[in-house]
Amino acid sequence: MRELGVQTLLDLLGIFVFALSGALAAVRQRLDVVGMVVLAEITALGGGIVRDLVIGAVPPAAFTSLGYVLTPLAATVLVFHWHPQVARLMPAVMFFDAAGLGLFCATGTTKALEHGLSPLHAVLLGVITAIGGGVLRDMLSGQIPSVLYDRQLYALPALVGAAAVAAGWAADLHGSAVTAAAAALAFALRALAMRYGWRTPRPRGVTDRP
Amino acid sequence: MRELGVQTLLDLLGIFVFALSGALAAVRQRLDVVGMVVLAEITALGGGIVRDLVIGAVPPAAFTSLGYVLTPLAATVLVFHWHPQVARLMPAVMFFDAAGLGLFCATGTTKALEHGLSPLHAVLLGVITAIGGGVLRDMLSGQIPSVLYDRQLYALPALVGAAAVAAGWAADLHGSAVTAAAAALAFALRALAMRYGWRTPRPRGVTDRP
Amino acid sequence: MRELGVQTLLDLLGIFVFALSGALAAVRQRLDVVGMVVLAEITALGGGIVRDLVIGAVPPAAFTSLGYVLTPLAATVLVFHWHPQVARLMPAVMFFDAAGLGLFCATGTTKALEHGLSPLHAVLLGVITAIGGGVLRDMLSGQIPSVLYDRQLYALPALVGAAAVAAGWAADLHGSAVTAAAAALAFALRALAMRYGWRTPRPRGVTDRP
Hints:
Chains A, B, C: InterPro entries: Gly_transporter. By secondary structure, the first copy, chain A, is an all-alpha fold. Chain A has helices spanning 2-28, 33-55, 66-88, 90-114, 119-140, 155-170, 176-196. Chain A has one domain. Chain A is globular, with a radius of gyration of 17 Å.
């Protein structure tokens, strides 16, 4: 019971932070309140919805949980009224975003394994769970998804966290302790990458986008 | 039987009008005939397909009904040959588009409730049914979806119509009379918003997109 | 057994070539290695994933086959290290892309028919299988999907191949010989269209996109 409570609380925290980034993107793109709500919901829930459609867990969790739908609305209200202040807190938001990334890749991989996917495919779905919402946010904002070009270590920490869950599963280690450890690993890697400015490689001869 | 006939006729009318807007968008973007067909089909059927995937009603209605697929083709033929005339009729098209919006939000919410979703989630899916096709149309045309920024009351009337269906359902009122009343309510609100130029709010300090 | 082997080999070849086009698009858009992997996977597997979600074949084939996921990675490695050489081979790539198009429209239609869809809807899904991955590739690259405006015969050969499978099915002809013949027909039509520069029509008064 207590464990369920902690897991749910972490889930909602991840959703809240992802929703903040969606609502802030809407402000940057000068969208109206409809755009803010849509981007907040999609950023927070989009990755999980895609995962659930793929594994056949319908309706997706986002369409059975009240908290999942209402939390992005709370983030939207906050950004609507205090977006300059929230934008100034971006370093803190990025910190929590890293936490959401870690959490989502670990829980996404676990859910895919529980639905019988192979470790490789579960890792793939874990990464999709973690980065899918941000990709949809950028597509709806008329941008190329930043994760595809900005050379930050963002998908890679998610991949490492997802692989840790799958490796644990293969060694018959599962349960929330493993999920938590993998989430922490992905979070730490992402935080270090931000701290030290680690970059992903690009093919030879390719320069920055203008 | 007669009721089924009226419902189907209204459905096809909504699909036809949404398809017109898709085919006209293709002309504005200077697409070829393939682009016209794809945008007509997606605009008309996209919202319902997403709804059906989410509630697990597969194959989606669009992939089991001949009329749903052929009606957008008829709209494409019309726009292909007479797009200047159709574009001149835009005020009338917008009027029928409002009817399609009302109809789709009401029938989408009803279908979601029938599949066991909670009232809140059914409302969400009703709105997705109504605006999803237009969002996909704009994304495929390389545009930010207009519903996210243009400050027209478009998603809000859909939300009100969907909420009316859900409120009726909670009060044990359902059937096609309730659906029709909710559709009419959304339609009326949308028509009034167009007539009087009502606008959605934007966060403080945000100005028009260039 | 032997037949299965040939079919699988052809599938993987189609996936490989589509993945090449995705990875090359990523290089043109100056994406990083994450963008290359994502575009390679989506271009190769996106159409089939959409088809499988629509017919309810979950998890989609891409999430149950190792080869389907690993083949685009191989294409990414190739393009990462030798993209100037691969780009110079574009005529050959386009030739194999036509083969992939033929194969995907035929197998997609067959799978949809086997899942009980009507011939019309199976044809629709066959075309989606063939062109869906490229559409998603272009959307993720911030481009209007080229199949919607570039007036090449690309969707049409897929439509013809899909219709040939459906016509065979209606005449009680199925099996891999029919699928292969339909794939060859679509391939030949696409190759002729490239050779002779055949163009799709556009509505009156519409000129080239800038």
